Amino acid sequence: MLQTSARLLRLLSLLQSPREWTGTELAARLEVTTRTVRNDVDRLRNLGYPVHATRGPVGGYRLGAGSSLPPLLLDDEEAVAVAAGLRTAATGSIAGIEESSLRALAKLEQVLPSRLRRRVNAVQTYMVSVPPDHAGPTVSASVLSTITAACRDRERLRFGYQSHTGEASRREVEPYRLVSWGRRWFLVGWDTGRQDWRTFRIDRISLKTPNGPRFAAREPPADDLASYVAHGVSAAAWRYRARVIVHAPAAVIAERLPAAVGPVEAIDDRTCAIDGGADSVETLALVLGMLGADFEPTGCPELVEHLRLLGGRYRRAAGG
């Protein structure tokens, strides 16, 4: 059974989720009686946390919004998770928040007890991130903020856009959602000029001001926008695309293939196909070479030529 202080932190963590908890549910999670739950709720209220309770068969506890909440308390796992997230953000795909993330991490360390500070320091010392210049494009935090505000306020966005082929165009879009995929960010929105849903890579967007007029909400193009974007990206967003037959089971290749490259389709028990691509043939060849299976690319002569170049280079390196 958790000690009282640790149990209060756990209870507070549960109440911060966007739902109501019955006393029985909280008691089961905390491995205590419902009476103990009521006593712990009273303790949180005495500390200044606005814990609301509703009666009846569908009633329960929830943490209300308040302007005078005490400082946020984190349990051990939450503190380490926040530290890891801030460390990742410091070298992540969003430009402009690196310094802010490091400052927040430093403040977090100052208020942690020594045992937790050691765990967080271990995360910092032994966690290494690939620098953005070697891992893909970055986007501005201000651009993300502007786009999400337009999604919230249902305001049209006007921007210049450069396609994967380098073609420039001007767009007016009703923004719906942002989707994060690996180190890339995408905007899903209704393109008013093309009268259809489109997916845009945010690092290729140049926002224009002011925003356009407000718009009425539409039905989204799919319930699962992550899958929608994945399909659209693999179908059109890369500079180089190929269909690759791989002589290995689809389940095996799906575990080894980065999701951003494209979907894996089973052909039979021992063969599958990848319909995907990348911004460069070098990246695509590297990914295919790491699958650990024989493969046959089609539809991209540039990739075939690069593989031929690599084959000769590897043979010479091996003394062949």
Features:
320 residues, alpha+beta, Arc Repressor Mutant, subunit A, four-stranded antiparallel β-sheet, 13 strands, 42% helix, globular
Describe, in short, the structure shown.
The chain has 320 residues and is α+β, with helices and mostly antiparallel strands. It is built from eleven helices and 13 strands.
Number of helices: 11
Largest sheet: 5 strands, antiparallel
**Mean pLDDT, rounded to whole units?**
84
Number of domains: 4
What's the N-to-C terminus distance?
A: 65 Å
Structure class = alpha+beta
Main-sheet strand order equals: 8-7-6-5-9
SSE pattern, N- to C-terminal: HHHEEHEHHEHEEEEEHEHEEHEH
Assembly of the depicted chains? single chain
Shape call? globular
Radius of gyration: 25 Å
Query: Percent of residues in beta strands?
Result: 15-25%
Low-pLDDT runs of 5+ residues are none
Helix content: 40-55%
In total, the number of strands is 13
Description:
The chain is an alpha+beta fold and 320 residues long. The chain has 4 domains: 4-63, Winged helix-like DNA-binding domain superfamily/Winged helix DNA-binding domain (Arc Repressor Mutant, subunit A); 76-130, no CATH class; 139-235; 238-317, 2-Layer Sandwich (Alpha-Beta Plaits), CATH 3.30.70. 42% of the residues lie in helices and 22% in strands. The chain contains 11 helices and 13 strands. The protein has helices at residues 4-15, 23-30, 34-46, 76-90, 98-111, 114-126, 141-153, 225-237, 250-256, 281-289, 301-317; strands at 51-53, 61-63, 94-95, 139-140, 157-162, 168-181, 184-191, 196-201, 205-208, 240-246, 264-268, 271-278, 295-298. A 5-stranded antiparallel sheet has the order 8-7-6-5-9. It has a 4-stranded antiparallel sheet with strand order 11-12-10-13. Strand 7 and strand 8 form a beta hairpin. Helix 1 packs across helix 3, helix 4 (76-90) packs antiparallel against helix 5 (98-111) and helix 10 (281-289) packs across helix 11 (301-317). The longest helix is centred in the C-terminal third of the chain and has 17 residues, at 301-317. The radius of gyration is 25 Å and the shape is globular. The model has no long low-confidence stretch (mean pLDDT 84).
